[in-house]
Amino acid sequence: MEGLKKKLDEIVDFDIKDIDTIWDEADIKTFEENHNLKLPQDYVFYLKHYGNDYIREDFRFIPLIELPKTIKQTQFEIDSFYGLNNDENRLDDKINIYQDILPGDLFPIADLPGGDLVCMGKQGDKHNKIYIWFHEMDGENVFLVCDSFGNFIENFKRINVEKNTLDNVKLNLGDKLNDFLKNASKNMK
Question: Looking at residue 119, which CATH number applies to its domain?
Fold first, then answer.
């Protein structure tokens, strides 16, 4: 688990992390029993020592598995990972919120900006594999991205993030709002 710990220490944004609780085996066992899960050791390690984390803005997940052409992205920003702490990223709450929306053989472990989810397989041939669920996609909207949680974490890569300035930020406000703002600015002169 040393490699996993090293990579997590690299990608987790500890400047945002408020809680630093270490969970024990009994906590994990209770969680598994409550949700009828058997979690892999790499994910148990994460939940025990981390959890409820935000990822540094200059890291993206880059899948090694080729995704269908309908998915235009080759890298994914992961907003936050869920954990056992009682905050807005509490895993129990997220499982309950999404249980009627996600396929029954998946549970959410993290989210992407915009509402898509990273999920882990619960059983069968999906067990412990990592998927991305695209909430706005019609038809098949769940895609395998990694064969384990540890491999998922290992596939985070540092990217070059351009800082926002007035020169590189473009706003698309829509024609009606643009017209309204133009007319308002004329009336102010």
Answer: 3.40.1580.10
